[in-house]
Design a protein that fits this description.
One of its GO terms (cellular component) is cytoplasm. The chain is of the alpha+beta class and 422 residues long. The protein is built from 14 helices and 23 strands. The chain has a four-stranded mixed beta sheet with strand order 21-22-1-23. A four-stranded mixed beta sheet has the order 2-14-16-15. A four-stranded mixed beta sheet has the order 4-5-3-13, covered by helices on one side. Helix 5 packs parallel to helix 6. The chain is globular. It binds uridine-diphosphate-N-acetylglucosamine and phosphoenolpyruvate. Uridine-diphosphate-N-acetylglucosamine binds next to helix 1, helix 5 and helix 6.
């Protein structure tokens, strides 16, 4: 594991370039194995999740090459092989190989996935969707084995019991080459779903309605990539840097932004009194004056993202007055950052899964642990705001999803170094 050491209290200034979206990338890489020709992805973030997915591709005899921000994947000699449990459990998105392998081979055998420890994360809706398409789903000694009938998968009418990003992606991946028409209702509307549909449609898929809650898929026989696909900017990375810029920035410009993807987040920071110029593909954040406290309630897109409730918390701590409230309706147990922030001097309580934030605490450096990616982001921001040194253990949880984070922070003037942890 790695640790991140931050000497905090520095004012940050300058430009930061947002990378491609982690949550698109981790769906697009498994989706690439549906192609019968090589795939080129542009604007790919340098994150550990990508390294782990590339390694899983290799286990299936799929070669990949990552130069700068371009990832080339050649699935033409793909083989259906057992996938090592350790690698599958190293990230959440490995479960997308279920849908992708089912679509490509009519069979998949994948261990239960890992990913962030943010409370219960059932995947019953993924199974429900695949079963509606005619697949048999079995749990054989801790391995999920999904198999299509002899005649192949058949399009179906599927209604998700709750909106799920992962289930929407897995069902799309399985249904694009099924026979006939699939209608998916109560689908997730996240921008990453639209990105996936754009990628697949450019390979010959027939997906309509991505970005709405009804997605219609006309199954096609074969997918072939013909053009490079540029991944959308990471709205969660953007929100994280925006929060940082508002906390301790002396003029920070975020580049490679689709501001519409951040609407609910921007509305909240605006309500706090953060001063910004929102331009076509950049946001300039002015140094903050006195900030007002707000309440945040997470919701599926286009609501306030659960992945941004932790990164915005240091900003709430720096509000001048009022009591802050954060309610995470998607992952109510996503509170692992609170105990660690309190070690740094924050005054935050959790009562019945409701996070209550007392404003204006002076933060001081401390030794803390990043239990998951966005808890890590929250601690990283707190460490940059704090006086003195902060050591964040389990920093891999930050590196698995934040593109070139050490370099980006240093360019803004931060004193940050990542080391191997003994
Ligand atoms: C790789 C990726 O894109 N990860 C994102 C994805 O995770 P992920 O796709 O795992 O999250 P989901 O959208 O599936 O989960 C939403 C809610 O539905 C519940 N649920 C989900 C599936 C299911 O079969 N049964 C069920 O009960 C979950 O427990 C959760 O309460 O969306 C989350 C919610 O926006 C984000 O925090 C993650 O960053
Ligand atoms: C929860 C997250 O990721 P994952 O679904 O990959 O665990 C996240 O990105 O905040």
């Amino acid at each position: 594991m790695k640790k991140m050491i931050i000497n905090g209290g520095k004012t940050l200034k300058g430009d930061v370039f947002i990378g491609g979206a982690k949550n698109s990338t981790v769906a697009l890489i498994p989706a690439a194995i549906l192609s019968h020709t090589p795939v080129v992805l542009e604007s790919v973030p340098r994150i550990q999740d990508v390294d782990n997915l590339m390694s899983l591709l290799m286990d299936m005899n799929v070669t990949s090459d990552f130069e700068q921000t371009t990832l080339t994947i050649d699935p033409t000699n793909i083989e259906l092989r057992p996938l090592p449990h350790g690698k599958i459990k190293s990230l959440r998105a490995s479960y997308y190989f279920m849908g992708a392998l089912l679509g490509r081979f009519g069979r998949a055998s994948v261990a239960f996935p890992g990913g962030d420890d943010i409370g219960p994360r059932p995947i019953d809706q993924h199974f429900k969707g695949m079963e509606c398409l005619g697949a048999k789903v079995e749990n054989i000694a801790g391995e999920i084995v999904v198999s299509a009938p002899k005649e192949g998968l058949k399009g179906a009418h599927i209604t998700l019991d709750m909106t799920s990003v992962g289930a929407t992606v897995n069902i799309i991946l399985a249904a694009v080459t099924a026979t006939g028409k699939t209608v998916l209702e109560n689908a997730a509307k996240e921008p990453e779903i639209i990105d996936l549909a754009t990628f697949l449609n450019n390979m010959g898929a027939k997906i309509r309605g991505a970005g709405t809650d009804t997605i219609r898929i006309e199954g096609v026989e074969k997918l072939e990539a013909k053009n490079a696909h540029t991944i959308i900017p990471d709205r969660i990375e953007a929100g994280t840097y925006l929060s940082l810029a508002a906390c301790i920035g002396d003029g920070v410009c975020l580049h490679n932004i689709i501001s519409e993807h951040l609407d609910s987040f921007l509305a909240k920071v605006e309500a706090m009194g953060v001063n910004m110029d929102v331009n076509e593909d950049s946001i300039y954040v002015y140094p903050s004056g006195d900030l007002s406290m707000i309440q945040v309630k997470t919701m599926p897109y286009p609501g306030f993202a659960t992945d941004l409730q932790q990164p915005i918390t240091p900003l709430l701590i720096s509000a001048k007055s009022g009591e802050g409230v954060v309610i995470d309706t998607i992952y109510p147990k996503r509170v692992k950052h609170i105990r660690e922030l309190n070690k740094m001097g924050a005054k935050i309580k959790v009562e019945n899964d409701i996070i209550l934030i007392h404003p204006g605490s002076k933060l001081t450096g401390a030794e803390v642990v990043a239990d998951e990616i966005r808890a890590g982001a929250s601690l990283m921001l707190a460490g940059l705001m704090a006086d003195g040194q902060t050591v964040i253990h389990n920093a891999d949880n930050i590196l698995r999803g934040y593109d070139c984070v050490e370099e980006k922070l240093r360019l803004l003037g931060a004193d940050v170094t990542v080391y191997e942890d003994e």
